[in-house]
Amino acid sequence: MPTSEYEDDEVEKVYDTIEEILQEDGRGDTNSIILGDWNSIVGDEPYQNIVGSHGLGRRNHRGQMLIDFCERNGLIVTNTWFKKPKRRIYTWKAPGDWKRHQLDYILVKHRFRNSVKDVKTLPGADIDSDHNLLVAKFRTRLKKIIGFRKRRPRWDLEKLYAQRQSVQETLEEKLGAIEGESGNAEVQWNNIKECMLDTISELVGKVEKIARKPWVTQEMMNKMEERRKWKNVNNEEGRRKYRRLRNELKRAT
């Protein structure tokens, strides 16, 4: 991000570029993680659900620009939400160590804030920079992808048995036609498999899928209604008809 030596227009251009990228990725479906040196101070004053109370320093103008950017795009400043000692918060120190600021931030979509488990700096890390290494711990849940399994065809075995002689003769004829063809073992096997499948498809065919009938038919519904009427008839005829209807429904199921 441009430093304080640049005008605000230059900073806004960078924000506009990042927003265009976010719009391409989708505003809610993608867990975009944006991190870097923002050259801004958001401070330790909470702001809505964007900035927590564990930042560092007093918010400046560039910090407010960063907050406005987060508000437009549904982002949060993650390293202001975890209580840490100051040495784990500041990300930059001036030459001579006379001033320390929090200028680096990790931004994520508000929708995914619970996936961020910890954010802190590692001031002792040797990274050849005047900035401290900023690290975050995320917990991600990978979506289970169910692979599509192609169903094997169900051949009509009864028809195959009835026409086994014709199938055998046709298959021998087709295999004889490719007997002299060259190729490795895989090519030869594919040729044999195609001959077998073509023969079965032509002479036998697949079993037609029969649609299942509804478990409860209208006839059963009528009998259930009639059984309900006879259930409360307290005489011999009522008990006899109730038992008959109950047995008929049991057999139907």
UniProtKB/TrEMBL annotation:
Residues 19-131 form the Endonuclease/exonuclease/phosphatase domain. Gene3D superfamilies: Endonuclease/exonuclease/phosphatase (3.60.10.10). Pfam families: Exo_endo_phos. InterPro entries: Endo/exonu/phosph_ase_sf (IPR036691), Endo/exonuclease/phosphatase (IPR005135), Swc5/CFDP1/2 (IPR027124). This is Endonuclease/exonuclease/phosphatase domain-containing protein. Transmembrane segments: none annotated. GO terms for molecular function: catalytic activity.
